[in-house]
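pasting for ref. prot 1 ->
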Amino acid sequence: MSTTPPGWYDDGSGTQRWWDGEAWTDQVQAGSADDSPPAAEAGSAAPAEPGSPTAAEALAGLDPAAAAAAGIAPTGATPDTPGYPAHAASGAPVGAYPGGFPGEPAAGAADGRATYQEGSPQPAAKSKLWIVFAVLGVLVVALIVLAAVFIPRLIGQITGGGSPAGSDAERAAVEVVERYDDAWDDADCDLYFETTTEGYRQALGMTDCAAFESTAEVFDESTDEYEIEVDTVEQTGENITVLTTERYLSLVDENGDPLPTPDPIAEPLQYTLVPAAGGWAIDNVQ
């Protein structure tokens, strides 16, 4: 930082220019420095006498010859003068003059461009790593969603011992089993006849609606929260086998007496279905 007081100084081109204490101004005079106004403050440096070193040279501690060697334009020199510093031809105040550094354009030079000195800190480049982290985050979320959807299905197929209904016939057979369960839950005789074969009704001893409805009402009063879960479906020849696990709360004991606390039951059942009337009917339950 320059501490040169305001005054008229040679700007390196043989022209006297006014230095305001911080930077060069546009005020110049081609005549002798004797006609210039006095410096704004006491102690200002006096204008250079003809033939004497310029203020810039004096500040640099150099004589005219040494100034040229250091890259400073001698007093009265022009760009055609041998040894004239190349960077001084731009007309910008050069180093060792007020506000500058030896051999470099001064701050606030005429071209208005900032000068970075060697070794000065440079602006840090902005990192692009956030883009990589953002993409990785999206991929991780997508993998978590896929895992949540497909892993439970895979585990269910492995632990279930087989695959659930796949073909149209297997799905139709499962629907018949579910409707048979509804028939017992609602004591619906028509649905009972629709989902079973005559041979199966005879095996149960319930060949008419009165027998079925009375038995279904007793069953409904002795159980609660009945649920049916299909485990596997397999078609062998013309028949389809549906394996289920049926869970419910038993409200009575083996003798039909009420239990103080409902007893949870999980009962595996195997339904055998045969073709009947263009669909499927239950022919046996074990």
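and prot 2 ->
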Amino acid sequence: MPVSRDLAHLSDEAVVALAARGEEAALAELYDRYGTACYRLARRIVRDPALAEDVVQEAFLGLWRGAARFVPERARASAWIMTLVHRRAVDVVRREERRRTVPLGEQYDEGLGDSAERVVWLRLERERVQRALAELPDQQRETLELAYYGGFTQSELAERLGRPLGTIKSQMFAGLQNLRGQLEAQTKEGSWRTT
């Protein structure tokens, strides 16, 4: 059923305000504007089409329930929406990691021709990086995850997160330095090994 675009002329912030008042057409308008970009971001993070759809659905449900808490002075609506999606996607990745029941061999494309040793090594390295990322301050982690997993440039991050470009650059630099320190500490402690 086609949705009327009566709200297409309004700013994102105005449409979020209407969603906060319970206007279903406002939620539909936001989905029309950002649904595809949100799905792409979720897909890059969770790497599974069905999970990415779930992430977007949960994020828009969260948007619907939390629209009244949006503060336009703190961030642009587009950045707020993408942050909701990013956080949901990261939560899903963490949940799936905890509940991982799929045998190791099924997680990789058999056509790659990787040896079992290489597959195990890559898995351990990924887990090591994920543990190190989890130790970073929230803004540094968010910036790095969006840049590397989401594929956003620094300029796109500045726009989406509503932060100055210089702040984004500083957060990425500090985040990478902290990440390197975390990885070096894991190596020295031997904590990168799984038990």
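The chain has eight helices and no strands.
The radius of gyration is 19 Å.
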